[in-house]
Description:
127 residues; UDP-galactose 4-epimerase, domain 1
Amino acid sequence: MQWLMLQRDTPDDYCIATGVQYSVRDFVNAACSEVGMELDWQGEGVNEKGIDRKTGQVLVEVDPRYFRPTEVETLLGDPSKAKEKLGWVPEITFDEMVAEMVREDIKIAERDELCRREGFKTFDYNE
Length: 127
C-alpha cells in the first residue's frame, strides 16, 4: 500500500480504515478472548467495569482522565478514497488484527520478563 501512495504524481491524504465501526468494549472482548479470558460487563458510563468471569477480578474500568477534551460520540473511518484511487482494501479482519496485537504484546512481555530475570533493566510500560 505504501508504494501505491508513493507512486502518485501528486501528494494526497488517504484514510486507511475498514469502514466498519467497533467499540472499545469490542476491542477488549476480542483481546481477552485471544488469551482465553471472558469478561462480564457491569454498570454503565463512567461506572462500567469489565470483570473476569472466572476470578471476579475487575480488569477494565473507565477512567475519565483519558477522555478527549472534545469527546465525540462516534468515530468511523471512510476508506472510499483509498479504495477508489489506490485500489486499497483491508486484508485482515478486526479479530485477526486484535489477535496479532495481543500476540506481539505477549512476545514483548515474555522478552522483558526474561531480561528482568537475567538482571537487565527494562522499561515499565504501565502507569
